Amino acid sequence: MLAEILAWVTTPATLDARRTGHLTAAVSLWSRGMRCRRAWGPHEARCHGVVARAVEGLERRRTCLVLGSGLVRDVPLALLAERFERVVLIDVVHLWPARWAGRGRANVERRHLDLTGTTDLLLGRATGIGDPFTRLCADPSVDLVISANCLSQLALLPVERTARMSSPVRRRFADLGRRIVESHLAGLARFSARVCLLTDSEGIDVDASGVEIERRDLLEGVRLPPADEDWDWDLAPIGEYAADHAIRHRAHGWVDFHAAMARDPGGRARRRRGADEGMLGSRPFREEGP
Ligand SMILES: C[S@@+](CC[C@H](N)C(=O)[O-])C[C@H]1O[C@@H](n2cnc3c(N)ncnc32)[C@H](O)[C@@H]1O
Q: N or C terminus: fewer CB in 10 A for the chain?
């Protein structure tokens, strides 16, 4: 607890990240990551493998953007820094471990950015949502974009906060969670560079004997095309969230997300229909985020 308070106080975060709660969420992710280090190891290794495949097939390696870079555990930073002229770590907040990870690597930069464009709305300074992708997509030197396990996380805080705002805001943004997930995917689709997507899609509660007791959608009903790799991520061993069950996430990696979308031409309509029909539900699950 003391370490968390110290991290909150000493991290050079923007006032916005403190006021929206992004800093608090990042500190709690760091703390959970420390406790679950061993359980998360295989998941992180799978993520590194997918990113390495994405890097291998590239003709040019000028700039690599890492969206949702967080603590830089899911991406092999040494490999990226070695292969690319420039690596830009993008997150709403960068804790000390992320800052240290880039230390001594002159071609690694950090950029603070709210990838949902909702900060001004949440802080009552705007009535709509911004588009953070316009500037990112405008950089012609970008050859690889990695969306690093942030897709299922982006909507959590905005949905939670707008639920506490005035009723006109609540009404106008009743589908905010799904809009955020869809906007992120639409933003990725706008890059001409290769896009490598890492995300979890479902949370599964598993009891002590390994029996599944509940399954939740983590992507607001939005369906994705078949992934290049799928695996289980042991997010919370028994005792981390609950005494009687563990939490496992279904995780996925797309080496080349544009190619996966092109291979799944009917998928877009199906995904849209599935979301409209609420096939997977759209309940945000705040407590369970990694
Ligand atoms: C599961 S973590 C990703 C872990 C990270 N890829 C790593 O290797 O440690 C989700 C990340 O999404 C970031 N995030 C959540 N909301 C965000 C937002 N609105 N804009 C940018 N990043 C956001 C969090 O700060 C967190 O670092």
A: N
